[in-house]
Amino acid sequence: MDHPSRSRRALVTGGASGLGRALVALLVARGDRVIAADLAPERPDSIPAGADYLTLDVRRQQDWDAALAHVRDTWGGLDLLVNNAGVATGGRIEVEAMADWERVVDINLLGPARGCHTFTPLLKEQRHGHIVNVASLAGLVHGPGMSSYNATKAGVVALSETLGFELAPWGIDVSVVCPAFFRTNLHQSFAGKDTAMQEAGVRLITQATVGADDVARIVLDGIEKRKPIILTDRMGRQAYFGKRFARPLYDRMMNGQAAKLARRAGADPSELTR
């Protein structure tokens, strides 16, 4: 990848709000040329001044092909692709509908996969570039009641690790971002039948002490340092390394969360295990 002091050409999906918008603002302030991509057919007012805008639904390959053509025609290449667009979801396995599974897989997992698939040939031609896939702490530690979300984010982690090795011979870096809960508008994308889990998710997001701007600064620092895994907070580091090096403690914590979830659903965990 180009030296951090040089201006980059960057494309950020989900760039109209939340972490995506915060990253766009920081990249523009740094002097990079940036395209913020999002769903709106017209440029949203939230897009930071100095950034270009492109309509892109990560579920549509036609939109990805148009983005690639736009980048080639406008800049002749791309240095940084940030696959940030995603939705929140949550639900117990027997409650969440399979249609909700299909929606979150299409956006959270296949969205980044389409981005990587579309832009890798260009990055290989250049023999440089950086792909940044935004996953979640849920991609590394897998609490109960979030199976569809956990599965898609774990898939993004696996995709990123795979491509980190696969693309290294072409000088292409790959990073995966795994933040814990932070204040953003992600909770507005909740959809599905398990309202109890969604209410818990909304509380965790809206009551978080860290905002998107704080996380974006840490992410940008991780990009500059070419970190393969970017952990953005103390809680995330504790959970990740606890799972790796203190597995019994991690299991007890997750079993405790599962017991609380069962009680909220009206069951007695002690009876269920007899």
Structure description:
It is a single chain. This protein has 274 residues and is α/β, with parallel strands linked by helices. The chain is built from 9 helices and 7 strands. The chain has a 7-stranded parallel β-sheet with strand order 3-2-1-4-5-6-7, sandwiched between helices. Helix 4 (147-167) links the parallel strand 5 and strand 6 (172-178). Helix 1 packs across helix 6 (212-224) and helix 7 (234-245) packs across helix 8 (247-264). The longest helix is centred in the middle third of the chain and has 29 residues, at 98-126. The chain is globular, with a radius of gyration of 19 Å. The termini are far apart.
Termini separation (Å)? 57 Å
SSE topology string: EHEEHEHEHEHHEHHH
Poorly predicted spans:
none
Overall spatial form: globular
Task: Characterize the largest beta sheet: strand count, sense, and whether it forms a barrel.
Answer: 7 strands, parallel
Strand content: 5-15%
Question: Which terms would index this structure?
Answer:
274 residues; alpha/beta; 9 helices; 50% helix; globular; seven-stranded parallel beta sheet
List the helices and strands and how they pair.
Blueprint: E1 9-13, H1 18-30, E2 33-38, E3 52-55, H2 61-74, E4 80-83, H3 98-126, E5 129-134, H4 147-167, E6 172-178, H5 195-206, H6 212-224, E7 229-231, H7 234-245, H8 247-264, H9 269-272
Parallel strand pairs: 1-2, 1-4, 2-3, 4-5, 5-6, 6-7
Helix pairs in contact: 1-6, 2-3, 3-4, 7-8
Quick summary:
With 274 residues, the protein is α/β, with parallel strands linked by helices.
